[in-house]
Amino acid sequence: MDKKETILLDARLISVIDNHAFDAELCNGHRFVAFIGRGDLGKEMPETGVLIKVEMSPYDMSKGRLVL
Prior knowledge:
- The chain has 68 residues and is mostly beta strands.
- Helices cover 0% and strands 56% of the residues.
- The chain is built from no helices and five strands.
- It has strands spanning 7-18, 21-26, 31-35, 51-57, 60-67.
- It has a five-stranded mixed barrel.
- The two termini are 16 Å apart.
């Protein structure tokens, strides 16, 4: 994603889908898949239920990237 075309939002992690994907929900109830980038895989994994920042494209609100 291009930095100019991303939106930074707060989301709550609902469940773990895979070791690099989470089911997340925005404050307004919109649910989407949040991914951890390849460079962030070595960092500590967030737990479900916590609030975390995500980057999303305004063109595709079905997926986003966790900002760790």
